[in-house]
Amino acid sequence: MAAKPPINPSKAQTPIAEDDGGIGSSSKIKEVIPKRGYLHCEDELTFVLCKPKLLPLKSFTMEKLEKIQAESVEKAKEMMENSNAYYICTILTFEDELTSE
């Protein structure tokens, strides 16, 4: 097999397509000026004010974390109360055993 010489881009032939007047065509745009009616032009650029967007003071994630933390604190309190109740019951039964003897 013989090696092909490299292609020189300046000598490469490109197919010439007919101009169909579509987007990206090189034909000139025909200017149309209305004979009747208003022609409106703006010389100044002005700001367009839109409705303000209200942002939450706390993000959704922060609220979720606070909720989880509050639930864990509540569970810890319940566990402490339950464990205290267990110890109180144990002490009372131990005292009852001592007094019954």
**SSE order:** H
Estimate what percentage of residues fall within beta strands. under 5%
- The pLDDT mean sits at 71
Sketch the major β-sheet: none
Secondary structure layout:
Blueprint: H1 60-100
Characterization of the model:
The protein is mostly helical. It has a domain at 76-101. It has one helix at residues 60-100.
Which labels suit this protein?
BBIP10; 1 helix; mainly alpha; BBSome-interacting protein 1; 101 residues
In short:
It is built from one helix and no strands. It has one helix at 60-100.
